[in-house]
Amino acid sequence: MSRSGADELRRFKQKWAHADYPPIAVTESELDSLERTFSILLPDDYREAVCTVGLVRPTIDLLQAIVERGLLVADLSDLFSPGEVVENTTGLQEVSLPRHLVAIANDCSGNLFCFSALELNERRTRHAKIHLWDHDFDTVELVAASFTDWIRQLADIKPIEPAHNDNQSGQ
Fold first, then answer.
1. Residue 143 near residue 74, CB atoms below 8 Å
2. For the chain, what is the total number of helices (H) and then of strands (E)?
3. Residue 157 in contact with residue 66, Cβ under 8 Å?
4. Rounded to two decimals, what is the model's pTM?
5. In 3-state terms, what secondary structure has residue 139?
6. How far is CA 71 from CA 20, 62, 63, 64, 75, in A?
């Protein structure tokens, strides 16, 4: 049985977020306003996940696991609030972000995870592809078939185990 976007985001939160920093709450009305701003309909899996779980802010442990394991995957630094989605998307579209992309998150290098508005403008869908826009090279690549799949990929990364130092016992 496959997990929902909310289930995967909960799993991601348990593995990669710090318990002292709870996810930031998002309301349906905030997402409705974001949709009106861009004349889009966000996918159900994304809406459900961020409204149910909130915006998870991962710790540096995710980036550390990606780097130390030599994984060819971009880390997730921040999931943007609806206001940040609007601010980052409109601001960067004025400079170089392709007009069809709507930025929902970033990685540690400032690259943006995005939905394509071209997929979100006719009717609400269950899923929409996640793209990564690289601001240094002005390239766009497909990251995952859906928000759920993207978060699942990140939640499936194994954490780095802390090194044990036998000399710490004072012997």
1. yes
2. 6, 5
3. yes
4. 0.92
5. strand
6. 28, 11, 10, 10, 10
Beta bridge partners of 72: none
Q: Which residues pair with 141 in a beta bridge?
A: 132
- CA–CA dist 113, 167 (Å, integer): 43
pLDDT in single tens digits along all 171 residues of the chain? 578 999 999 999 999 999 899 999 999 999 999 999 999 999 999 999 999 999 999 999 999 999 999 999 999 999 999 999 999 999 999 999 999 999 999 999 999 999 999 999 878 899 999 999 999 999 999 999 999 999 999 999 999 987 665 555 444
Please report, as a single letter, which amino acid is at residue 99: R
- Write out the two tokens for 12: 């991601």
Cα distance between residue 130 and residue 74, in whole Å: 12
